[in-house]
Amino acid sequence: MPRETTNEPEYPDAAPVVGIIGGHGGIGSFFARALQAAGVTVLVSDRGTRLGNVEVAARCDLTLVSVPLRATPAVLAEVAPHVRPDAALVSLGSLMELALPASNACRGDVFLLHPLFGPGRHGLPGTTLALAPLRGARWRVWLSRLLEGHGARIVTTTPEEHDRAMAGAQALLHGAYAALAPEIMATLPGNDPLAWATPTLRLQLALMSRILHQDPALYGDLLALNRHTPVVIDRLIARLTALRAAALDGPEAVAAIFTGARDLLGPLGQDLAAEGDHALDEGGAFRAPATLLLEQRGDDTMADTQKVVAPVLREDAHPSGREGRRHGNDDSSDVEALSTSGLTIGDLGWTHEQAEHVRARLASFAEDWDAPEMDVY
Description:
By secondary structure, the chain is α/β, with parallel strands linked by helices.
């Protein structure tokens, strides 16, 4: 019986050979490591590799394409005709509708898979991937079972639904940073504008700065190549226009805008608010100033958290920091932390236990902070 008419797709008897086009990039190399760790044979093509894209597609049972968004349609068109009828082609792009025209030339199975995380992850547990089935089920089921078996979560979608969601989750969110961050900074006076920042503002500016210091071409693709982007930007402009009018009308009008926005969050609102409180340690016994740079000086249990708060710190903030240790200035004293102003923990009235508390809290999100392009996915 042909497999298209069965209720359960035929499952491969043996582990397939998987090809990754763009396998030296961030997401491509992540999948290469994850699949190899699962015992799968992986072939890679990229700049400078012995194998080319077409050869990988012709030889492999499952070919994953992980290249920059603007190159995705051309690469898919290049390799699609060479995928065997019993094999599959998968685009790992952050946008899905771009992949549709070229995928029509593929004779095998086709599906789209967007990892909703950055390549800095150490493994699949706890990750989420959006999957859009296009044609065939055999290899889609095989890969889904493998990913879920290693702790990933699969969310099934359509290309249009996915790209519409990404217009808000990626294009609007990150695009708004490019407009919001400069306007906020322009309002903060003096040579030390962060001295005026509340904990919430400092955290928001840190997140904005993290995005703005990544590759601008990445966000150029995410915004300009998503056909849904203008619609969500227009809706945001309409909301900002209404907010401006409310500010002129008076406090009650502004309050109504805030109440309406809160209500639109629905039942998720309270949980999201609690997550925000947790991120800021609201209500906790102790909250660290975000300017602090924790450094180990005589206690090997203290982790270096400079990278976690990098947008507001410098490694050379004090001669006895990282640079000073390189030149033998570590004095093995009991002082564990320095701020950018040169103050010690003692100057700030901190105890060793409080410093350990801050270290533990910052370390918990260091991996995500250090990811080269967190999520973009």
